[in-house]
Design brief:
247 residues, mainly beta, UDP N-Acetylglucosamine Acyltransferase, domain 1, 9-stranded parallel β-sheet, 1 helix, 4% helix
C-alpha cells in the first residue's frame, strides 16, 4: 500500500505487501523486499557520487520509521528496525536483524554483522567494522580521523558479542575485543582485549567481564550476556549459547 502523497519512482523495485507512508520519496535506484513498512517523510535511495552506481537494497520484513534517510549504494539485510530520523549513507553492508536507534547515523563504507543493536544517538563513522550480536548504547561515537581534519581514516573494529555502554567515544583504529565490555562514559584510546572490562577516560582494563554479577540475587555472572539474555534472538542462537562453553 502506497500513500497517495508518496512519490515512488517507476524504476524502483518494490516487493509484495510493502507499505509506504505519507510524503515519503523512493528514488530510482532502490530495491525494497516483501512485507516492509516505510514510515512517513522518509527518503530512500538518495543519489550519491560515492555509491558506485549500486542500489539501496532493503531486506524483507523491515520497518523504517518516519523522517529517515537512506542513500543509494548500501545493502541492509532482512528484518531491519529503525527509530525515527536515522541516516544511512552509501556503501555500507549490514546484516540481518539490525536495530538502528532514533537519531543515529551511519556515515557510509561500514560493515555491520547480524543482530547488532544500537540505541538512540549513536554515530558510526566511515570504515567502522562491527561483528555479530554487538550492543551499542546511547550517545556512543565511533571516530575515524586520527588527526582531524585530514584525509586519513582508520575505522574502529568491534568484535562479536561486545557491549559498549552509554556515552562512550571510541578513537580511530581501536579494536574492541570479542565479548568485552566498555563501561559508560569511557574514552577508548587503545585496543580492548576479549572478555575484558575497560572504564574511564582514558579507558583502562579493570578485570574480566566474568567478575560482574547479575543484580537479581542469583550471584550468577552477567557476562557472557548470552547465557541469560535471549529476547529477540533465534531459537538456534539461544540453543547454541546455552550449550557452548563461552566463559
Amino acid at each position: 500500500m502506497i500513500h497517495k502523497t508518496a512519490i515512488v519512482s517507476e524504476k524502483a523495485k518494490i516487493g509484495n505487501d510493502v507499505k509506504i507512508g505519507a510524503f515519503t520519496t523512493i528514488y530510482d535506484n532502490v530495491i525494497i523486499e516483501d512485507n516492509t513498512e516505510v514510515g512517513p517523510y522518509c527518503e530512500l535511495g538518495v543519489e550519491s557520487t560515492f555509491s558506485e552506481g549500486l542500489p539501496l537494497h532493503i531486506g524483507h520484513d523491515s520497518l523504517i520509521r518516519s523522517h529517515s534517510i537512506f542513500y543509494e549504494g548500501s545493502s541492509i539485510g532482512n528484518r531491519l528496525r529503525t527509530g525515527h530520523r536515522v541516516i544511512v549513507r552509501e556503501l555500507s553492508i549490514i546484516g540481518e536483524h539490525f536495530h538502528l536507534g532514533t537519531l543515529s547515523d551511519i556515515q557510509g563504507h561500514c560493515r555491520i554483522g547480524n543482530y547488532v543493536r544500537t540505541h538512540s544517538n549513536v554515530h558510526i563513522g566511515q570504515n567502522t567494522v562491527i561483528g555479530n550480536y554487538v550492543w551499542i548504547f546511547p550517545y556512543t561515537v565511533f571516530t575515524n580521523d586520527p588527526h582531524p581534519p585530514s584525509a586519513t581514516q582508520r575505522g574502529v573494529i568491534v568484535e562479536d558479542y561486545a557491549v559498549i555502554a552509554t556515552m562512550c567515544v571510541i578513537l580511530p583504529g581501536v579494536k574492541i575485543g570479542r565479548c568485552s565490555l566498555v563501561g559508560a562514559h569511557s574514552l577508548v584510546k587503545r585496543d580492548v582485549d576479549p572478555k575484558t572490562i575497560v572504564v574511564g577516560s582514558p579507558a583502562k582494563p579493570v578485570g574480566p567481564t566474568s567478575k560482574i554479577k547479575l543484580l537479581d540475587n542469583t550471584e550468577k555472572s552477567a557476562y557472557p550476556w548470552t547465557k541469560h539474555y535471549h529476547k529477540g534472538y533465534s531459537q538456534n542462537d539461544i540453543y547454541r549459547w546455552i550449550n557452548e562453553n563461552n566463559d
